[in-house]
Design a protein that fits this description.
Structural class of chain A: alpha+beta
Largest sheet of chain A: 7 strands, antiparallel
Number of strands of chain A: 18
Shape of chain A: globular
Number of helices of chain A: 20
Radius of gyration of chain A: 23 Å
Strand order of the largest sheet of chain A: 15-12-14-13-17-18-16
Oligomer: homodimer
Chain lengths: 544, 544
């Protein structure tokens, strides 16, 4: 028997875009701008055929195969090349390079696909007793190496694909709670909640493919976090499969019954247990919405504006400020006479450093929504209003980033993102330091990097900073090119902000964790892992 | 040298009321009502003189005394009877019985009063290496045995009184953050923040005496939680003294850098470390406020009303619903012609089961505050408005509970509170079950308990339930009388709600923790404790 990898075939292709989708590539003016601005001169890089990748034979012992098949059934233990390859790593730039034939690919020895939480628990317990490493796998969208199939010191490594755990188990409309299986993808969860007039309101850029369990495991934050909160704030209860059996945490909306152990599971990235079921706070679906664009002159003024909104309860459901560089990239990749006209208009208005500010409001009634919009707009200060066209344009493309990355990689660009967060009083310094680290480490003869940044998650005490870097790829050492830049950026972050605001730790940030939580903090995490996963089979090499 | 116990002299007296305060006792009509309603017939119970209490000699070894004195100075290691007695236990009914001569008192062998975070760390490390148990002590207001000076299996037990750590270390007005030492009392912290135009907004009933470190250690929630959040939501960063040295957690407004370890320290009740410094989110002080009273007919209707407010972002800064019994107790203890007139008025309006609903709004401008008030009032449904007189009456007495308890104890009542929280769909069932458990276990010949309840903390998914029980004291076994009732109530709570919404675990709830977080949860906590406090000297017998 064979389970198709349809829902993962984009991965085999080496990117985010489904193989059947019409991929228009980038417009010609975008290519021209990239050549002029960054020095891009390489010819388009064809995607290496899947068949060219080296995939070692599965080393899963026959005895373990038999045990796993006895739990999940023969059709749900996959050892074919294509199935294993489809779960090799996540969706970072380096992962995609690996799937395009540059750099290494960690391919699991097998993929096990349990049907429900009980089967997950049984698989986890069985793997622990047979010295098999387990990599929990939801949408596979990690950009920090969180689903890389590392074997650690174990005999073999299996990817535990949760795609069959896709059910909405129950809804309590009075308490506004819904119980989901952890493998539900975000769009599927939204579709099922919509039947009840409800929404989760969690829309990260990985929305199209990511799963609810993955959101919890990585402490995800969506584009509408100002309106709906971070994912951790939606988690009311969790069921977790550990090598020592099932563990359930969370019984009430709030509690003083000791430390909040939900916050130990949330963000544990599959290293302490596999999240199998989630009780999530849900809300009525919005019936009205309005997205608008504004231009602020200068990033510092924009930060002041967003801070004022955040500290006065006046953020939109979505509130997102681009720095001058990101605004410029957006203009350049859009192109066209409208952008030319807009540039001229802004110049005429004396705007020296245009920063795009997108604000979206969603609500249960036009009256309520417009009241909130009024509160926001009153506090905006000096801005140029671009109206709903700009807002809708952002909304239309809100999940397009990963596809655009595919296209940029196709033409030979190194393109990757990283993010952090800090308090308002340090945000300017942190942005400058990270920008400088990235620009300095990537500037070489003939290569001029573009480093763009935005704020998309704002709090009373601070905000996130999200950086996108574009530079022509170093064809001789594409992995090293980015890794050096990433290291420089991470070192600029440590001490001023968190090493990650919503991408999680994975492999990429693991060496910076002790600087953030202290060596005692890391030892505490190790002690917890030792208690729950004494054999160390859960997601080796991640987090700690 | 001798440090006065002025700030704790109420404790020596056996209650909350300072010894110099004018204690008016209860009005005559309150006594009459209690007799008629509960069967109270005992004569007033005089407070046993402090000198009658048995206080064993200090068993702190001379060598340890010398070590501790070398850290804090001779004047800050207290071994006098009065100083030790003043830190014997918290403020639960059973604690107060103990200080009134009924039941046992756990008196520490010494009291150590460090000057700052460094000294706290040195004291903790020294105690760990000398097998001395440590009980961190802030305001000493625990009602669950959280500061009871249990020695465990150690040589001796010292109370670590943090009263000298009372400074505001820094303020970042841009990021709205303030760094405090942990021993700052809430009123002192508010006074210092007021100089900067700021407030913390944390007003639990223990406000007058409790400390910031205690709020964090116990996962406290204040009366204005709807407006300012639970204390855990205010905690941005913590410095913690552990036997393995200092530990700092929290670097950014939000992070995905693994599990949120702040949530492991918050609620750890001094068992994992001693919180010495806190970085807290602060807000501008309100410049306008308005408190009003409303009457809803029946608790179920009241619950629906509060739920509607909570789920529409329309709660007041304070929102508090009393059940019919609590409303009745309030009317009865107030008395007077106004209450008589109010009762007649409500009868005439056809209100069968009056439930008092107090809502307070606070804001930065009248315009903004009244806009929020309008949102609330629009959603209230059918209520009788009592106006600001009832609201101001509640506000005037908001911290009076503990003093009223002193007076009730003086006249021979058993009076204690307990609390829980659950989701909206289970709240009626939980209230009924706990009521029944308390009433059944306390009803005896000649003793008829009053069990009153309110909701004071509401969330989108549920709310807290806070029970106050009044019954004539069993003079032969006053401790057993309450302990039986507490056990019955706790067993009614387990499985339906959390064992504690904001009082913490301490000694009283420790045996129910595994039902709430699972045996794996308890083992995880033990593993963390083992890592940070390998000798087990920190607050023995609490939490786990």
């Amino acid at each position: 028997m064979y389970v198709p990898v349809d829902h993962l075939d984009h991965r085999v292709r080496g990117g985010w875009t489904p193989s059947g989708a019409i991929d228009a590539g980038l417009p010609a003016h975008a290519n021209r701008w990239l050549s002029a601005r960054t020095g891009l001169s390489a010819p388009p890089t064809p995607v290496a055929p899947d068949s060219g990748l080296v995939v070692p034979e599965s080393e899963l012992p026959a005895q373990v195969r038999a045990v796993l098949i006895s739990i999940v059934g023969a059709g749900h233990l996959l050892v074919e090349r294509a199935d294993r390859l489809a779960r090799a790593g996540g969706m970072s730039y380096v992962d995609l390079l690996g799937r395009r034939g540059a750099g290494e690919l960690a391919v699991p020895d097998a993929v096990v696909c349990p049907a429900d939480a009980d089967q997950v628990r049984d698989v986890v317990v069985a793997c622990a007793s047979h010295d098999i490493a387990i990599v929990p796998f939801g949408g596979g969208t990690s950009v920090v190496g969180g689903v890389t199939a590392l074997r650690g010191d174990k005999t073999a490594v299996v990817v535990l694909d949760l795609y069959r755990l896709d059910r909405l188990l129950s809804v309590d409309p009075v308490s506004r709670l819904a119980v989901f299986q952890a493998g539900s993808t975000a769009p599927e969860a939204e579709r099922r909640l919509a039947e009840h007039g409800l929404t989760l309101g969690h829309f990260p850029q990985s929305y199209e493919r990511a799963t609810l369990g993955g959101f919890a495991a990585t402490r995800s934050s969506g584009q509408a976090s100002a309106g709906y909160g971070r994912f951790e704030e939606m988690v009311s209860a969790l069921r977790v499969a550990t090598p020592r059996g099932d563990w359930r945490v969370g019984v009430a909306p709030a509690s003083a019954a000791g430390p909040d152990l939900r916050h130990l599971v949330v963000g544990s990235e599959g290293t302490l247990g596999v999240i199998t079921e989630l009780t999530l706070r849900v809300r009525p679906r919005p019936v009205v919405d309005r997205y608008e664009g504004f231009i602020v002159d200068g990033f510092d003024a924009g930060v002041d504006t967003v801070r004022t909104l955040a500290q006065n309860g006046a953020l939109g459901t979505v509130t997102r400020l681009s720095d001058p560089q990101e605004t410029e990239v957006g203009f350049a990749l859009s192109g066209g006479w409208k952008i030319t006209a807009l540039r001229a208009y802004l110049r005429a208005r004396g705007v020296a450093e245009p920063c795009l500010l997108i604000i979206g409001w969603e609500g249960q009634s036009a009256r309520e929504m417009y009241a909130r919009r009024r509160t926001t707009v009153t506090l905006l200060g000096k801005t140029v209003r671009l109206g709903t066209v700009a807002g809708e344009k952002w909304r239309h493309g809100r999940f397009a980033g990963p596809r655009q990355r595919d296209a940029l990689m196709d033409i030979g660009m190194c393109v990757e993102t990283l993010e952090t967060a800090t308090h308002w009083s340090t945000i300017a310094e942190l942005r400058e330091n990270v920008r400088k680290a990235l620009v300095d480490s990537l500037t070489e003869a003939g290569r001029r990097p573009v480093v763009a940044c935005h704020i998309s998650h704002s709090y009373e005490t601070g905000a996130s900073l999200y950086f996108t870097t574009l530079v022509p790829r170093d064809l001789t050492d594409p992995v090293g090119q980015w890794q050096r830049a990433k290291r420089a950026a991470s070192e600029a972050i440590v001490g001023l902000g968190t090493i990650t605001h919503h991408h999680a730790v994975g492999v990429d940030h693991a060496s910076y964790l002790s600087a953030e939580v202290g060596s005692l903090g890391v030892e505490v995490l190790r002690a917890v892992k030792c208690e729950l996963d004494p054999d160390g089979v859960l997601n080796p090499g991640k987090l700690i």
